[in-house]
TrEMBL record:
<dbReference type="Pfam" id="PF03987">
    <property type="entry name" value="Autophagy_act_C"/>
</dbReference>
<keyword id="KW-0833">Ubl conjugation pathway</keyword>
<protein>
    <recommendedName>
        <fullName>Ubiquitin-like-conjugating enzyme ATG10</fullName>
    </recommendedName>
</protein>
<keyword id="KW-0808">Transferase</keyword>
<keyword id="KW-0072">Autophagy</keyword>
<comment type="similarity">
    <text>Belongs to the ATG10 family.</text>
</comment>
<dbReference type="InterPro" id="IPR007135">
    <property type="entry name" value="Atg3/Atg10"/>
</dbReference>
Length: 225
């Protein structure tokens, strides 16, 4: 497997994930300012084996306020971000808020975690009510854009499972990574056919441009440059 600064086989080392995660977070902060930034959560006691003073950890996107409008146009069914009018309300400030048909507030957290088994990133997420009760997958699917639900049913690359979060020891949902290596490899081969390989810095950006759509989070096209 390639341990350098380019990706050819669809997989990452843990060091490569650290590099790609920071590059992704930096690009997100610059080009997606309607959202709060992704935060790097270090795992200090797990970093002794890493070289170049890089630390093991994961990316966290929490406390974002998102409104899912029932009157969205078919052309843009990604979740809408509500910022200015609600940032002043401390009780919901920067929290993911989805207005479902019952007008009940639903909250979501997202983590991007490195899988040492598959050697690819994995998107973990959870949903819960304002009172803290966890949401079932059936309820979560009702909060997602319809195109996301269709993608979950039709795509051979993505499906949702529930398991214990590798670092928090609590049940979270995740997009299963079994097909990630294959479709990232296809993207890498496409880059090679044009005379270059995918740089590690763009790995998470390319990956999230596909995975993020499943949960209603789209990235600006400028992040792919």
């Amino acid at each position: 497997m390639n341990s350098g600064r380019e990706v050819s086989d669809g997989r990452l080392t843990v060091e490569g994930f650290s590099v790609a995660a920071r590059a992704f977070a930096d690009k997100w902060k610059i080009h997606n300012q309607s959202f709060p930034p992704w935060s790097w959560v270090p795992l200090i006691n797990r970093t002794l084996h890493l070289s170049n003073q890089q630390e093991e950890g994961y990316l966290s996107l929490e406390e974002i306020l998102i409104l899912s409008s029932l009157e969205e146009s078919p052309e843009d069914e990604s979740l809408n971000v509500a910022t200015d009018c609600l940032e002043k309300e401390e009780s919901v400030d920067h929290t993911i808020l989805v207005q479902n048909q019952e007008n009940e507030a639903h909250y979501y957290d997202f983590h991007i975690v490195y899988s040492s088994s598959y050697k690819v990133p994995v998107l973990y997420f959870r949903g819960y009510c304002s009172g803290g009760q966890p949401l079932s997958l059936d309820v979560i699917k009702k909060d997602l854009p319809s195109c996301s639900v269709s993608l979950l049913h039709e795509s051979k690359w993505t499906f949702i499972t529930q398991e214990e979060h590798p670092y928090l020891n609590r049940p979270w949902f995740k997009l299963h990574p079994c097909g990630t290596e294959d479709w990232i490899k296809l993207l890498s081969q496409s880059s090679i056919s044009t005379g270059c390989q995918m740089p590690v810095d763009l790995y998470l950006v390319s990956w999230f441009s596909v995975v993020g759509q499943v949960v209603g989070l789209r990235i600006p096209l400028e992040m792919l440059n």
